[in-house]
Amino acid sequence: MKDISYADKIVIIDFGSQTTQLIARRIRELGVYCEIISCYKTDNLTNEINLKGIILSGGSAGSICWFQDGISDSRPQELSVVNGLAFLPYSNCPHYSIENRKALYHQLIQENSISTGYACDDLSGILFRNGQAVEFVSQSDKHNSYLVQVVNGVVQSAITESNLLLNKDALQQQEYSSLTINQKMKDLININDNSTPLNAYVSIIKKLQLNKEGIPESEINQVLNIGIEKILLPTINWLELLTALMKISMACGIFTIVMEFG
Q: Hey, which residues does 147 pair with through a beta bridge?
C-alpha cells in the first residue's frame, strides 16, 4: 500500500452496496484518502475540504434511491412505485428480465406515471457521471441495460451497447499487467510481510488457513500445495481506477454514480 495522501479525498456514500468496502480498500491501496459514510449522515458533506469526488454506491433498491423514481418490492412488499432522491432525472428498474417487473415498468411509463428511464438485467449496470449515462457494462452478452421511453406513443426498450467485463475483478485487460509467479505456497512459506501483492497474498493465506490450532495434516498439505501462477497488478492512475472499480459494482447489478470536482 502506498503512503496515504490527504491532498485529495474521496467519499463513498453507502446505500447497501456489497462492494463498498472493496472499492474503499482499492482506493486506499493507491494512496488516496477515502472515507465511507452512511447515506443518512451526509448533512455536512459540502463543507469537506479537498473533496475530489463522491461515489454513491448501492444495488437493487439501493440503486433506485438515486433516481427520480422506480419500481421495487422492498418497501412496500408488493411491487409498486417508490420515490428516489432524484439525483438522476430518470426512472429505474433493476431485475428487468423478470417479466412482471418489466410489464409494470412499461405500463407506468406509458401512463406517464413515471419518467423515461434506465433498466438493467442482473449482472449488468450503468456508469453515470455528473448525471449522464456514460458507459454500459455487463458480465455476458445475455445480460443488458436498456433505455426505456415512449416513442410515437408506444413504449420502446432499446438495448444499449455494453462493454463485456470478463477479466479478473471486471477490469479490462489493458488496465492491468500480470506478474508470473509459478510457485507453490510451500516455496513461499517464509514470507512474513505485506510489502508486495505476492507477500500480502501469502500472509493472508497463512493467517486464515495455516495459523489455526488443530488443523489436520492433510489440510495443511493441501494449502502448502496451492499453486500461484500469476498476480494481476493495476496499471492505471487513481482516477481511472475509480472508474474501473465502478465497473466491478455495476457488473454485480449495482449502479454507481461518480461526481468529480475540480
A: 118, 158
